[in-house]
């Protein structure tokens, strides 16, 4: 059974933090209609930027290869989640109903190995790490997937897909009785089209196969070894191959043909090549656009295990706030590689604090600022063009600079106008500090801010009184004491203002 790519419960309209509120064009006449949307994405298979037209008007179906839950996630694992969350939010903002399927690979060699080493069941390892991934996605403000299927819950769909491939002459069960089922690579001449390789020059697949006809053939299904978890099939008991599960789940939830398949660039070969080959050989259209995010590196190299352990999400959000970590992970173009350093992380946190600082100052002089009606045209153009987040952030910071100048000039209305647009842009990026997701995430949570404000006002009143009687030593001491408590006081033409020191 397949489900249409456009569900009845649509995720459309404007995003307020993690809450998606449906809107209607009558109520929001300024909302962009689909007629004037010109989205373009770099499609890995076409090796060029292509105009995006969805299969069904107004709907986008999106599949993302999610976690293999063999260990808890470090920031390298979660970058893809943040990148594709921004894509999804932009599609929603553009008025599309998005069905987002992100799978969980809950069985593989390493999960079995970890379970054996710890003397626990494989599912205990999967459960524990899946919870760690869910926490990481949530804490970084990624909208939950429309559906998050697990591999082991979809064995019947995989068996059905293998039947189709065997019937069409593109797969075979190993003759050694091992229960392995292989995809027959030479039977499918288009193999290599996604990763742009010629089949005769390809390296061979994974190492543990038993009775393959051709070294390039890859396992759809792995026959059971003694003591390993297993599920029955007509070819013998075993467990899912990694590639097969994604094809089976994408097709089940998004249909035989769907709009966008995403994942890290390291998955292009063999994983995505194999997904594409087995689905197309079975007669499905499969993904129409392939989008791949760049890797997170350290010192220009792939992240080592030990370094990865120091970059686990719970540790990272002690160094910076979750919203600052999201800013850091999302700021570069999704296709570029992001080289991690502590300095770059701190710079990103400081850049985000400049945005927050401006919104706080505007609220102080002009009252609460509601999010604006629509994003600026140049911001929209940047995101339409292969999700140009770095260009979009340049426009965000331009607004902050212009807004600060307006505040300094006493142009409150202009500052408030810029702040409203700023909030709309930040919401699309999942970074609006005043959204439901992030409000109260920092030290300045709403209630505490009022309490601190009252206490600081008392101290500032005493400082003012000390100055009035020309007791500058006492006035400076009050300021220093506030500083020691983490309250920075700044004298402005409008009187003293304060903010909390960060970090
Ligand atoms: Zn996959």
TrEMBL record:
Where does this protein hold Zn(2+)? 65, 246, 271, 275
Q: What is this protein called?
A: Cysteine--tRNA ligase
Where is it predominantly found?
A: cytoplasm
**What are the EC numbers?**
6.1.1.16
Q: What class of enzyme is it?
A: ligase
Q: Where is this motif: 'HIGH' region?
A: 67-77
Extract the GO molecular function terms from the UniProt entry. Answer: ATP binding; cysteine-tRNA ligase activity; zinc ion binding
Per UniProt, ATP binds at: 305
Cofactor binding annotation: Binds 1 zinc ion per subunit.
Organism of provenance: Nocardiopsis ansamitocini
Instruction: Give the UniProt entry's GO cellular component terms.
Output: cytosol
Q: Family assignment?
A: Belongs to the class-I aminoacyl-tRNA synthetase family.
In this chain, the stretch annotated as Disordered covers 194-235
Compositional bias, Basic and acidic residues, is annotated for 200-219
Q: Please name the InterPro entries in this protein's record.
A: Cys-tRNA-ligase (IPR015803), Cys-tRNA-synt_Ia_DALR (IPR015273), Cys-tRNA/MSH_ligase (IPR024909), CysS_C (IPR056411), Rossmann-like_a/b/a_fold (IPR014729), tRNA-synt_1_cat_dom (IPR032678), tRNAsynth_Ia_anticodon-bd (IPR009080)
* Required co-factors: Zn(2+)
Coiled-coil segments: none
HAMAP family of this UniProt entry? Cys_tRNA_synth (MF_00041)
